[in-house]
Amino acid sequence: MGDANGCFWRKDWFARDDIRAAFKDATGRELGEPKSQKEMLEIAQIFKGREIDGKTVYGAAIFTELGPEGIMMGITLALYPWGFKYENTPGSFDMEGAVNSPEAVEALKFYKTATPPGYTNAYMGESLDAFKSGQVGMAMNWFAFFPGLCADPHTRGDKIDSFVKPPQNQEGSTLGGQGFSVVAYSDKQDAALEYIKWFAQPDAQAKWWDMGGHSRHRTGRLGQAG
Q1: Dihedral, CA of residue 156, residue 161, residue 164 and residue 166, to nearest 10
Q2: Full set of structural domains in the chain with CATH
Q3: pLDDT at 30 over 90
Q4: Which of 165, 171, 177, 175 is nearest to 111 (CA)?
Q5: Helix, strand or coil for residue 184?
Q6: Residue 224 — very low, low, confident or very high, per pLDDT cuts 50/70/90?
Q7: pLDDT per position as a tens digit, 123-175
Q8: Kind and range of the H or E element at 20?
Q9: What is the largest CA-CA distance in the chain?
Q10: Per residue in 203-213, pLDDT tens?
Q11: In 3-state terms, the chain is what percent helix, strand and coil (to 5)?
């Protein structure tokens, strides 16, 4: 099950004359899909503290979960586009100057600045709730949730649009998904392996894709689709 992280925004809010005028006054540019991470923050700041439909709203719902998965999936969406690396030379494990590079530090400071006040333990569900309830103009989440957002009565139709997280110093994104594994202490390892072999067949993967799965199989049309 493969997935990737992207962004969605309130298309109807972006079309409002007052918001478009405020953004033009602040930046000198027309409001539209951000071309960089910093442009995305500029858009978020236009929404921050503004009253829309009778409530005070904020710019963007991002991942801040205190657990390791949520915060890592969020922060790396800033780190990678800034140019973060795990090591200076692949395979050398020389992390000094790579993990803590000036670009990585700048990306972390940027991510902290982009966090709405009090929004300090949020992941997938909180991001979806904030967007659907009209609390934010933009949000990040996995593409697998986008069909549900487009069908939701509060955000469907001309109220929603999406975009890939923009670059900063380079292109970069966070990939996610769910994999297969066989538990070492299971007494049914042979059966589990047989199931995996069957499920990995192109015909089985194609049927799963047609049912809504996100296959990462690299054979035939599955490779093209994925």
Answers
A1: -140
A2: 2-176 (3.40.190.10), 185-225 (no CATH)
A3: yes
A4: 165
A5: coil
A6: very low
A7: 999 999 999 999 999 999 998 888 889 999 999 888 999 988 899 999 988 88
A8: helix 17-27
A9: 67
A10: 998 898 888 77
A11: 45, 15, 40
Q: CB-based contacts of 69: which residues, under 8 Å, 6+ apart?
A: 123
Cβ density class 185-216: b for 16+ within 10 Å, e for less: eeeeeeeeeeeeeeeeeeeebbebbeeeebbe
Q: What percent of the chain has pLDDT over 90?
A: 69
- Tell which phi-psi region holds residue 177, choosing left (phi > 0), alpha (psi between -120 and 50) or beta: left
pTM, two decimal places:
0.81
- 3-class DSSP state for residue 139? strand
Q: Which residue is it, tokens 């009253």?
A: 51
CB-CB contact of 44 with 9 (8 Å) = no
Tokens describing residue 80: 């990678």
- Give kind and range of the element (H or E) at residue 160: strand 160-163
